[in-house]
Each structure stands twice: as structure tokens, then as C-alpha cells.
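C-alpha cells incoming
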């Protein structure tokens, strides 16, 4: 089984990726938070810094692009090729309303014929670049995915990463596994599954039921349980490893960001997920929200993870 790390905007940037890889590893591909294209054909400094090869040494990174404009996609693909990338990912999965209203992310799925034209253009023009797609199964109705799959099957996708929810589901409800089962029979491209695999038991049960699927993308599961990959290898959960990882992660943010407030904001984002894997941590979660400086933060983290 190949394990991929899903992109989460503002969370899984190069600092997190590098720190995670040093401590845990086990990931075959990391995907960058999406890069947005624009009419000026430029890339934001923050986004470029995140994908610079020198900031991602020793890991396999796949830059993700979000756009509905073929010309802008082609231009960004060339920029990424100049940086040495040979594989890119198209985001057709983001359910955010601000994205969807611009007909991007999963919002593009509501226009299958326009999507088909867009894919025809980018695959024709980007012949030297491997392109994968991360998709949801539609906007409002699971039946939409049959037409989407017909479109995807027309192109030489590197991979098709399926999050079997609708745009309107956001991250609620359960993934539609019936649609995913159908996709296994229909898809011509190699498949990767993404969605609600949070524990070792979840992953092992998935592997037993879907034995022909060789790729899994994990996101929130790793954010909730940093040692998840080690636990998959049979190790017991070790909160000391969480502590060492989070200590270095905080130190790395301190090098990059200015002031306690900005660093604390980043670390509290991570703790939003971490507390979900720590039963009985309600009191500590409230204390974390009230923390205003890094000295108090460090004392609190030590008390949570080392007693």
C-alpha cells in the first residue's frame, strides 16, 4: 500500500511536511496546498516558497493547482516544470463556498462539458507533465459521478484520487462507498482513496475490503494522530514522540514567523486536530484556547503529553 499525505491549506506547508518526515516518514507522496492561478500569470511568493525544491528536500512533493482556466494551468505547469517537477495535481475537490462560487475546486464539477474541454486542452498542451486529479463525486447528486467518470476516462491520468463525498456534504455525512466501489470497476486510471480513514482499524478494514486499491491518501487522520504511520507498522502509541515532534514543529515556526501570536496561531490549528485523539482533554483544550504566550504554551503541552 502506498500512503499519500493530503493537502490542507494553511496547515500542511513545507515546515509541517519536513518536520513530519524527519520524525515519522512512511509517506510516499506529499501534496502541496493548492496553488491558485490568476489572470496575471504570477505565483504568490508564499505559494512559491512552499514548493521550492530546496524547501522540500528528501520528500516526494506533488504541487496541486486550482483553476478552471486552461491557459493559466499550462503557464503554471511550465513554472513548476522549471522548478523540476514532473507531476502535478488538479484540485476538483475543495468544497469551500468561496471556491465553488468561482467555479473552481468541486464547483467545476457542476459544469462537466466545460470541464471536459478544459481537460482536453491541458492534456494536449502539457504532454511532458504527469497530471493527476483529486475529485469529489459531484455537487448535489451521486449520479453525477457517472458522467464525470466518462470524462476522466478519456484522458491519461497519472492517478484519480477520489474523495467520495458531494460538494454539499462538505466533510459531514459518510463517504459514499457504493459510488467508490463503482469507480473501481469503471476507472481506467490508477485509483487512490481519500476520506475518513482516521485510525489503524479504519485503514486495515479498508485494505481488507478494497484489496485492488493500492493507494490511500490520509489527511485529518495524521493531523489527529501524528504517530499513525508508526502505529500502522505495529508500534504502540507513544505520546513522547508527539511531544518531540510538536516541540520541533513549534521551533521551526519560530524561525519562520515573527512573534508569539503568529506561532501560537499555527500551533493551535494543529491542536484542534490533536485534541480529537486525546480522550478526556476538554479541560486542556480550554486552557489551550486561553494561552497567550509560548512559555505558557510549552508548559501546557508538556503537562498534556508528559504528565
Amino acid at each position: 500500500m502506498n500512503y499519500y499525505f493530503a493537502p490542507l491549506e494553511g496547515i500542511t506547508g513545507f515546515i509541517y511536511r519536513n518536520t513530519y518526515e524527519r520524525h515519522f516518514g512512511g509517506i510516499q507522496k506529499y501534496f502541496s496546498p493548492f496553488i491558485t492561478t490568476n489572470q496575471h500569470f504570477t505565483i504568490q511568493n508564499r505559494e512559491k516558497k512552499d514548493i521550492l525544491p530546496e524547501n522540500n528536500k528528501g520528500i516526494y512533493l506533488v504541487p496541486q493547482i486550482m483553476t478552471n482556466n486552461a491557459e493559466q494551468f499550462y503557464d503554471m505547469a511550465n513554472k513548476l516544470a522549471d522548478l523540476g517537477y514532473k507531476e502535478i495535481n488538479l484540485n476538483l475537490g475543495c468544497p469551500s463556498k468561496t471556491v465553488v462560487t468561482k467555479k473552481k475546486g468541486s464547483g467545476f464539477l457542476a459544469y462537466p462539458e466545460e470541464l471536459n474541454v478544459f481537460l482536453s486542452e491541458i492534456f494536449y498542451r502539457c504532454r511532458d507533465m504527469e497530471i493527476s486529479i483529486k475529485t469529489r463525486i459531484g455537487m448535489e447528486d451521486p449520479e453525477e459521478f457517472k458522467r464525470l467518470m466518462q470524462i476522466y476516462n478519456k484522458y491519461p491520468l497519472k492517478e484519480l484520487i477520489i474523495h467520495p463525498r458531494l460538494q454539499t456534504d462538505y466533510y459531514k455525512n459518510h463517504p459514499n462507498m457504493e459510488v467508490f466501489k463503482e469507480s473501481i470497476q469503471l476507472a481506467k486510471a490508477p485509483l487512490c482513496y481519500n476520506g475518513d480513514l482516521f485510525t489503524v482499524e479504519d485503514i486495515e478494514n479498508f485494505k481488507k475490503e478494497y484489496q485492488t486499491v493500492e493507494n490511500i491518501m490520509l489527511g485529518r487522520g495524521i493531523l489527529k494522530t501524528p504517530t499513525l504511520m508508526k502505529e500502522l507498522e505495529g508500534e504502540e502509541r507513544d505520546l513522547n514522540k508527539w511531544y518531540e515532534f510538536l516541540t520541533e514543529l513549534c521551533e521551526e515556526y519560530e524561525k519562520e514567523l515573527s512573534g508569539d501570536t503568529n506561532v501560537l496561531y499555527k500551533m493551535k490549528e494543529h491542536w484542534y486536530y490533536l485534541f480529537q485523539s486525546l480522550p478526556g482533554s476538554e479541560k486542556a483544550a480550554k486552557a489551550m484556547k486561553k494561552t497567550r504566550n509560548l512559555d505558557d504554551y510549552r508548559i501546557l503541552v508538556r503537562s498534556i503529553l508528559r504528565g
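note: The CA atoms of residues 288 and 296 lie 9 Å apart.
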